[in-house]
Amino acid sequence: MIYSPSIRMRIAAALTLASFFISVFHIGSEIRTANAQKTRQKKNTINVPLHIKNSNSVPRNNAIVSSGIPLPEANHITRTKKLRIVDDTGKIIPAQFQVLSRWNGGPQNKHNPIQWVLVDFQVKSLPANGEKIFRLQTAPGNHVPHNQIHIQKTADHFTINTGVAQFVLNRKQFTLFQQVKIDSDDDGTLDTELLNPDTGGAILTMNGKTYTTRNGDMQTMKFEHRGPLHSVLLVKGWHENSAGEKALAYTTRFHFYANSPAVTVQYAAWNDGKIVNEGGQPDIKEFGSPNTAIFSGITLNTQLQTHNSPSYTIGGTADERWNGTLYNEAVLYQDSSGGPKWSHTPDNVNNTFRGFTATANDTTMHDSCANDADSANCRAVGWIDLSSSAGGLAVGVRDFWQNYPKGLRVNTNGTVQVELFPEEYNANFELRVGEQKTHTISYYFHAPDISSEQIQQQMIGANSPLQAWAPANWYLNKAAVFHHAVAYNKKKFSAFEGYNNAAISYKDANLFLLEDGIPNTGWTYGDRPESYGWRNYGDRIAEDETSGDGYPVFTNMQYDHTWFYILQTIRTLGSGNSRSDDWWNLAAPAALLQGDINIIHSRCTGKTATAMGSCMDSSTPIPIGWAMGGRLTNQWHSWSSEHIHRHALIDSWAGGLHGQLYYYYLTGDGFVKDAWKEYARNSAWRMENTPCNQDITTDCDPGYASMNPHAAQDNEWGRGGAYMLEILTDAWNATGKQRYLDSAQAVVAALNPDGTWFTAPDFTLNSNAEGTGRTVSPWAVAMVTKSLGYYLDSYKDHFGTIDTNAQHDLIEYAHVLSNFWQLGEDQPTQYRIYENGAYTPVESDPLDVAMADGLIWALDYDDGTLDRVRIAKVAEAAFNAGSHPWGSYAENTYMTTKTHVMMGINGWRYMKYALNK
Fold first, then answer.
1. What is the CA radius of gyration of the chain?
2. Are 760 and 745 in contact (CB under 8 A)?
3. What is the mean pLDDT of the chain?
4. Bridge partners (DSSP) listed for residue 440
5. How far apart, in whole angstroms, are the C-alpha atoms of residue 513 and residue 693?
6. Which candidate, 117, 119, 122, places its Cα nearest to that of 66?
7. CA 20 to 30 Å from 388, out of 110, 204, 734, 906?
8. Long-range contact list for 579-587, CB < 8 A, 24+ apart?
9. What gap in Å lies between CA 903 and CA 829, rounded to an integer?
10. pLDDT tens for residues 789-825?
11. Cβ distance 575 to 593 under 8 Å?
């Protein structure tokens, strides 16, 4: 077809215009795509400050930071390659990242967003009592160190090169370090051998026999984690004598760091003996029980190749050290806590003197303390050094004096001894079946020209590992990993926060001062012991358990003290003073104690009944399978009496593992991880094998936590089920394993309140009646509602739907709590309600704040049947009443350990509601 020129011009113009609009469309599309990409990038951007504080009076140089930091689910960060650390000048520094958990799935679910990541990096310099801010960012360019860790494996050895030192470990015999090489002459080659090989290892003395790790079989020697900056070697085995007899098992973790000649060694001695069945009960509770290990000492040995005139340095308190030429031996020995209660009876009858002694060449540099001495002068930081012309080795034990007795010894023959359980102590040591004790030791190999001041700085720093902290808002709101917890708010919640403050800051008594026996307010008690010593350190005293009629007992972290301390640590970050530091100083030793002494460690935890036979002196393992990984509650640590407080209870109602799990998230500590996993496996096993809840006449105590509300009796129903559901929900969240979800849902089914006497339509309260029949407690119901709420949140996060069975239970129990509470009354609730409706009104209880939490969770999952106005009023009244317990304490007053914990682990769901309404 032929067009005229004018038509051809009009067609060309039209085509040009169309081309223009098409171009504009494409440009607009590209702009929209670019903007969308920018939006996604902005959404995925993280730039969180990490605060690091040196709380010591010595500077820190090239110090390692290893801290867990949470990441928001919304950022959907699935790979650590997108993360980096920058210093206070914005410079990218070498860093290492390890995934600890993921949102709605286990760490192995690589498509799920990272929830907690362990961050390792090095702080080149940090002044005494100084602070620095680093930043965790999402951006390319993460650096690895020039001198990163290199590992070689042969049939006989592991060789670990950190860039400034080379460590050789024997894979056939456990000798600690087979050899260590450093560059002592600055020629750039690691060629100076410091050790006499085949001389090291652990020595256990028991019943006059000597057992060593050199003789013992090694069960495991593998790298648990391999990173460019921080690698962890796991070793497991037994101490054996020359006749091939095994004694205690051991578990050791070596922490190697890039560009560092120092190694952190965690050494755990563990009684993995068989449990004896005593009529269906494990006979492991009292001191001296069957298969208890009683021993006189455990020492870690290393031997330097010494040359002429070796020298020593002894570190006493933080401000003192002694050094000189060594002619025979130098010894640091801590016999007691050094506090005013160092000889308190019946706890410390075996302590010989107050404090510590330091001697060298038969000369005393520091003698035992007089009774009027300042405690600070009686407590050694705990380190010692042996040096020669080739190089030297300094060793120190973390929390040396707190874990008394302890000893450190060096000799002219090059022997360096870490006496974890010193033979010179005036008594033997005891580990019952399932108990273990872990110590953390720093080995610092150095060149000969290092000054004693530099060694002191290194060893004091090793005793106080640096922790990186994000702002409170990051944990609580941005990442939202502490559920519904809110930041410290004295203005809005004056009474609640005042009592929490009093737990650590009340001048006359608090959780710290009680260790030295200073009286508290409230009830009157007998003389208190200290919470120090290798078996007690980290624990607290539940004084109200005795009502003043008996000797104070230790809590064994009942009610999950560790979670209380960690929760307050996070809530008070940036709130001023030293609140957060004080809470953390309680949390760390509590978590370590809970993972060691309080849990019955067994090789058979969670296994089949048949397999459990290998861990039992019993032909019928099922009745006591619940002890495998169970928890010993409220052990009276220092008295071998048949009247150990609640000694028969190895049960779930002792508390959850929230604290253990979150301490692992914040530190990456492998021993704490082992402990909570063992407790979780035990909890799942109980639900899979329990005879409870199938027959309401079955007496499941103390082996199983009775969760059948139809059989509620004697005030204990509810607590076990609540903690069990929390434990299993935690385990499911942490691992993503179906086993834990199935077990959690079994708990939900067991807690079904339908048809119970206290949910019956005709059930009424009668304060004038005399109580008869079964009983239930409002505080126990409150604990159940809290755990149901937590489980429902987790289920909804995982699946986007609601578990209607758990929702039903929560709503029904909310009806119950709402009816139990007497609005407008001075005595609004009751400790125990009987089947016939009888009750005695009582004043407010600290667990009333848990009731407030459960009721708010019920509002979250209301199915339309709740009286929302009344529920909200009862929740508010319960929180306010619980924040003024018993009406007998003034605000900001220290109460008791138990009371503070019960209050402090609750209330946060209500506070979130109160701030948002």
1. 30
2. no
3. 87
4. 266
5. 44
6. 119
7. 204
8. 579/488, 579/501, 579/504, 579/505, 580/469, 581/53, 581/55, 582/504, 582/505, 582/512, 583/504, 584/467, 585/512, 586/504, 586/511, 586/512, 586/561, 587/562, 587/659, 587/663
9. 16
10. 999 999 999 999 999 999 999 999 999 999 999 898 8
11. no
For residue 237, what are its two tokens? Answer: 């085995």
Output b/e per residue, 310-334; b: 16+ Cβ within 10 A: bbbbbbbbbeebbbeebeebbbbbb
Residue of 661, 729, 652, 647 whose CA lies nearest to 683: 652
Strands 311-315 and 321-325: antiparallel
Distance CA 713, CA 701 (A): 11
Q: Please state, in angstroms and rounded to a whole number, the distance separating the CA atoms of residues 683 and 630.
A: 8
Is 51 exposed, middle or buried, given 0-12, 13-18 or 19+ CB atoms closer than 10 A? middle
Q: What CA–CA distance (Å, rounded) separates 853 from 865?
A: 19
Question: For tokens 């529920």, what's the residue?
Answer: 871
Structure tokens at 576: 């001023």
In this structure, the strands spanning 356-360 and 179-182 are unpaired
CB distance 874 to 866 below 8 Å: no
Six-digit token string for 75? 């950022």
Nearest to 284 by CA among 532, 689, 618: 618
Our measurement of the distance from residue 501's CA atom to the centroid of its chain's CA atoms, rounded to an integer in Å, reads 22
What are the φ and ψ backbone dihedral angles of 543, each rounded to 5 degrees?
-65, -30
Give the global pTM.
0.93
Q: How far apart are CA 13 and CA 10, in angstroms?
A: 5
What's the Cα-to-Cα distance from 240 to each of 204, 211, 217, 277, rounded to whole Å? 9, 5, 8, 26
Say if strands 179-182 and 165-170 run parallel, antiparallel, or are unpaired: antiparallel
Query: pLDDT value at position 279?
Result: 67
Contacts of 96 (CB under 8 A, 6+ apart): 119, 120, 121, 144, 227, 228, 229, 230
pLDDT band at 12, cuts 50/70/90? low
Tell me, what's the pLDDT at 616? 86
Of the pLDDT bands very low, low, confident and very high (cuts 50, 70, 90), residue 280 is low
| pLDDT tens string 834-855 | 999 999 888 888 889 999 999 9
User: Per the omega criterion (within 30 degrees of 0), is the bond before 405 cis?
Assistant: yes
Taken in order 774, 779, 783, 789, the sign of the CA dihedral is: positive
* Percent of the chain scoring above 70 in pLDDT: 87
Residue 793 CB neighbours (<10 A):
18
CA-CA distance, 512 to 493, in Å (whole number)?
24
In 213-259, at which residue ranges do the beta strands (DSSP E only) sit? 218-225, 230-240, 246-257
The model's pLDDT over 547-578, given as tens digits with 9 standing for 90+, comes to 555 667 778 888 889 999 999 999 999 998 89
Q: How confident is the model at residue 110 (pLDDT cuts 50, 70, 90)?
A: very high
Inter-residue contact 101 to 107 (CB < 8 Å): yes
Cα 492 to its chain centre, rounded Å, is 30
